[in-house]
Amino acid sequence: MRKNLDVISAYTIMLALIILVGFLQSWSMALSILCLCLISAVMTMGANIQWGYAGLINFGIMGYTALGGLAAVLVSVPPVREAWQVGGFSMILSAFLIAFMVFGIRFIIKKYKKSPKANYGIAAVIIVGLILLRLISGPAIESIEAVNPATTGFLGGMGLPILFSWIVGAFFAGGLAYVIGKIALGLRADYLAIATLLISEIVIAVIKHEDWLSRGVKNVIGLKRPVPYEIDLQKKEWFINLVEKFNQGTLNLITNAAEKQQLLNQLVIESSTVFVKLCFAGLFTFVVIVLLIVTQKALYSPWGRMMRAIRDNEEAANAMGKNVVKQHLLIFVLGSAIVGIAGAMLVTYDGLFTPGSYRPMRYTFLIWVMVIVGGSGNNFGAILGGFAVWFLWIEAAPIALFLINFFTSGLEETNALRVHLINSIPYFRFLMMGVGLLLIMRYRPRGILPEKIKHI
Amino acid sequence: MDFINAIVLLLNYLFVPALSYGSQLALGAIFVSLIYGILRFAYFTAGDLMSFGTMFTILFTWYFQSLGINLGFLPTALLAIPFGIIVTVLYVLIKDKLVFSYYRTKKSPPVMLAMVSIGTMFVTQAIVRIIIGPSDRRFFDGEKFILKANEFKEITGLNEGLTVKSTQVITLLVTIIVVSILFWFLNKTKTGKSMRAYSDNEDLALLSGIDPKKVVMITWVIAAILATIGGALYGLDKSFKPFTYFNNMLPIFAAAIVGGIGNPFGAFLGGYVIAFSEILITYAYRKFFVYILPESLEPDGLLQLLSTDYKFAVSFSILVIVLLFRPSGIFKGKIL
Which of A135, A441, A442 to probe by mutation at the B interface, max B CB count within 10 Å? Predict the structure, then answer.
């Protein structure tokens, strides 16, 4: 108990802050902060596995998040039959062609090791393959995108419940991580950071512009939810009774029947949004707890010890017969898969997929701030970082407004400087993030909750 | 005649824009490469430092314009750039004193410094947005074109026009001047040589009496100068928007790595490699082939290798290919 005092107190403060938002602003707001905190926590856990356990820098978090989101679309949207009829066959053919190209290249690499022939062969395969791909898929893409472009214009998905996408998203992201890991994991740390950052940009470019797959910047809206809709809830008998029961005290104060009914209706509408968000929060908490148990077990297993050994001294671990390259690839894939889950969760929560919104600032650098601030190598720290940073990110505007009003209270209301500062409130969150990160890195470089290792 | 038309077409849509874009990237890539070579970390604030310098250039431009000072047919910004440089140099030196020097004396691993530079990236971005706002700004004045398409057609009697914007010529000239001074400085002067020595082998350089503080300071000063000039030229040519500048960090890094990071000359060429490949691969060649092929062979498609949406993706793919086959860059930078 004593040992974990810092963890417990940090989490208590965090929850108290969220509850404070509930009292001061609104419960709906507090719950949406909580939901996004939980999603951020999943992302930071993924990044923490890579950075904290193994010392790998992955700046491609944005790409995996987007792939998770794409998985949500491909799983939950019903298939567009018309589009499959006009272009489905060609697209499947193209997929086979790509697979064929990959195997061809692998065959060439194996057959002609390190000879100039191999390079020419690969170049030939790629060029011929791309031309064929263009010829096969070009007309098909055009006809798919022409199918009712205002609402569909893409192949659609499989029409399954969206919860499956959380697993599919993990597989998508893990698959991409496997490819990237094969290419880039041999690089030095900061090179790896740049390479992954740029590759994630390529992923976003593809998702943004391949309309037949994801509708691109036209966005996919109205994804099915795993929890009830507000409108349906408001009509359900049991829900109205539940609300009535909860607010018995306030309702009993009013004697007029019509007014009472009006208040009840209003309460039902308000509570329905809170209820929906509570359901989401419950689902997300479940995911976070499962992941926490698994990662915690992994951290203290022989495997976790080996990972730390590799992180702290790669050469020594290698000399002890550990396959560093293989383990790095494994952990890269695992961490990215967790980020993929978070991406699918995020799209599930929003109910829409907007490829244009994936920006490195929000989905890569902010997540890294969370990991560093929270405490790398410590799962509790990573989750706390996700909570604290997201909370600050959202609440930065009110805090900045308060501070500006406080410091400029001597100036007049119409003072140009004051007006300018108040107009630029949204950008103070960047300042807070940056200063916070710099302070933490300077005075508490191992994060709020540093890594604890039992030395036996 | 058709053949000349085809050449002019390529010059107009490919060569001239790629040359100016490449110069702007090259200036950025050089300073990223220098910082990597001498301070030994990936400087993620690169794009935002450029926007910081450009912002002050714009502010000084507005100030001069309000005073009624201008350079005639040249943009007033050219007069403002030196003042922008002074502010940026001060900012960078203060930042180094407050933030980076601590980690340098502690000999932190490069990853740590890269993370710290992400912190300064957030701060710089906030400062720029708080002062000037996130919107698009144009601050170009003076003569816009040196050669207009119509004039060119009249003079030469060709079908295709050639447009040369004055910003493109200014970009090219300024880049040539700045880069030649820089390479003269690095290769001929004592300070420049000591910088290169420090980059090659820190311990040996310290043994031979090179003052590390001076080397670091000059590196930051050069970085600030190049960032401001590169940023201001980009802003003159296109427009100033903090978000685009942040995004430009990516092709700049690609250029630095493709050229061989830590090798300024490689970075300089890397900028052009990235710019030309971006534009070459996303250009629609239909009209070009209409000119040079006989009528019977006229193509019907756009003849575009990749759509322009993939502009950024092209440069990053080149980076991936270079990393795969020649990890130290085309022009041999540091070994990874």
Answer: A441
**Lookup: tokens for A455:** 């030395």
Residue in this structure with the two tokens 């691109």, named with its chain if needed: A216
Closest CA to B110 of B46, B48, B44: B44
Please answer yes or no on whether A442 and B246 come within 8 Å at the CB atom: no
Q: Do B126 and A430 touch (CB under 8 A)?
A: yes
Return the structure tokens found at A39.
């999603």
- Please write down the HEC assignment for all residues of chain B: CHHHHHHHHHHHHHHHHHHHHHHHHHHHHHHHHHHHHHCCCCCCCHHHHHHHHHHHHHHHHHHHHHHCCCECCECCHHHHHHHHHHHHHHHHHHHHHHHHHHHHHCCCCHHHHHHHHHHHHHHHHHHHHHHHCCCCECCCCCCCEEECHHHHHHHHCCCCCCCEEHHHHHHHHHHHHHHHHHHHHHHHCHHHHHHHHHHHCHHHHHHCCCCHHHHHHHHHHHHHHHHHHHHHHHHHHCCECHHHHHHHHHHHHHHHHHCCCCCHHHHHHHHHHHHHHHHHHHCECHHHHHHHCCHHHCCCCCCECCCHHHHHHHHHHHHHHHHHHCCCCCCCCCCC
CA distance A162 to A71: 9
Least confident range of A419-428, B155-164, B215-224 = B155-164
Q: Which two tokens stand for residue B230?
A: 């590169």
Model pLDDT for residues B117-139, shown as the tens digit of each residue: 999 999 999 999 999 988 898 88
Q: Is B335 on the interface with A (CB under 8 A)?
A: no
Structure tokens at A184: 């880039």
In contact, A200 and A360? CB cutoff 8 Å? yes
**A181-209, pLDDT tens digit by residue?**
888 887 777 778 888 888 899 899 889 88
8 Å CB contact of A434 and B122: yes
With contacts defined as CB-CB under 8 Å, which chain B residues touch A213? none
Q: Tell me the nearest-neighbour CA distance from A119 into chain B, angstroms.
A: 10
Phi, psi of A80, rounded to the nearest 5 degrees: -95, 100
Tokens of B275: 């710019």
Helix (H, G, I), strand (E, B) or coil at A223: coil
How many Å apart are CA A280 and CA A122, to the nearest integer?
Answer: 48
Residues 340-369 of chain A whose Cβ lies under 8 A from any Cβ of chain B: 361, 365, 368-369
Structure tokens at B117: 């530079």
For residue B40, pLDDT beyond 80: yes
Q: Where are the domains of chain B?
A: 2-325
Tokens standing for residue B329 = 């860059």
Residue B240 has φ and ψ, to the nearest 5°, of -100, 120
A224 touching chain B per CB within 8 A: no
The angle formed by the CA atoms of residues B220, A433 and A38, to the nearest 5 degrees, is 140
Fold topology of B2-325: ABC transporter involved in vitamin B12 uptake, BtuC (1.10.3470)
CA-based nearest residue in chain A for residue B41: A190
Q: How far apart are alpha carbons B273 and A368 in whole angstroms?
A: 31
Check whether B72 has a pLDDT greater than 90: no
The ipTM assigned to this model is: 0.88
pLDDT over 50 at B335, yes or no? no
**Which of A164, A228, A178 is CA-nearest to residue A64?**
A178
Phi, psi of B145 (to 5 degrees): -115, 145
CA distance A350 to B162: 49
Report chain B's C-alpha Rg in angstroms.
21
Largest CA distance in chain A: 91
Instruction: Extract the tokens encoding A176.
Output: 């991409």
Q: How far apart are CA B296 and CA B298, in angstroms?
A: 6
Residue of A nearest to B99 (CA): A438
Confidence of residue B301 (pLDDT cuts 50, 70, 90): low
The continuous run of DSSP H or E covering A225 comes out as: none
CB contact under 8 A, A194 and B133: no
